[in-house]
Amino acid sequence: MDLSVKQFIQREVFEEIDERIITFISVFSSSKKKKRSFLCVTISYFHPVTLRLHELRMSDKGKQLTMLHSWLFKEIKLIDGINPRKSIPELEITTDKTYRWEICNVNEKESFIRQMWKVCHRHLASHKPEFVNISIPVEEMECRISQESESFVGTTSNLDNKEEFHTISPLEENDFKNLLSKYSMSIADAQSFSDKLHQQLSILDKASISYLKYFIIAI
Description:
Layout: H1 3-14, E1 19-29, E2 36-44, E3 51-58, E4 65-72, E5 78-80, E6 90-94, E7 98-103, H2 109-123, E8 130-132, H3 138-162, H4 170-182, H5 190-218
GO molecular function, one term: phosphatidylinositol-4,5-bisphosphate binding
Organism: Trichinella pseudospiralis
Protein name: Exocyst complex component 1
């Protein structure tokens, strides 16, 4: 990618619309005239972050750039590298229709596609274009999976901290054992224990009611 050309495109086209060019590639149209143009990936300077793909064409005199097409990346349905095993100078992008270009320098094709893949997965939460017939940038994919895994582990760790199990104190444990021994019961005899506990609570409730009646009469 020619840095001077990138700076020229940035200055002439994207500065005034508050976008920064991330990468570009020189292509020929698929028409018979084979006119040369530039595919440019841009990102907005301000929030919300907006990603776009533009097609620019240089005038015949080579002094002015004209915007032929402009797409939001979330509007792009498919980015097709045509052949993932062989470097061929062709690229297809599908929005509401399919556009096909011949790339001027085939050695720049993979880098351009990688940059598109990278910005889409970094800045688009949904509505990402599907990338097909390309050499998948494995290192970026592994990095993304690793980040998502770390996020998941962090979330589950927070849940564990919120739901910590608190054991009973030695005093509470001793009181519980004394209560069981009073009725000559084992822990397995849960139903009998529950029935007797309800009986004790009932007796306490009756005693409380009797005391309350006595207190009211006394007043």
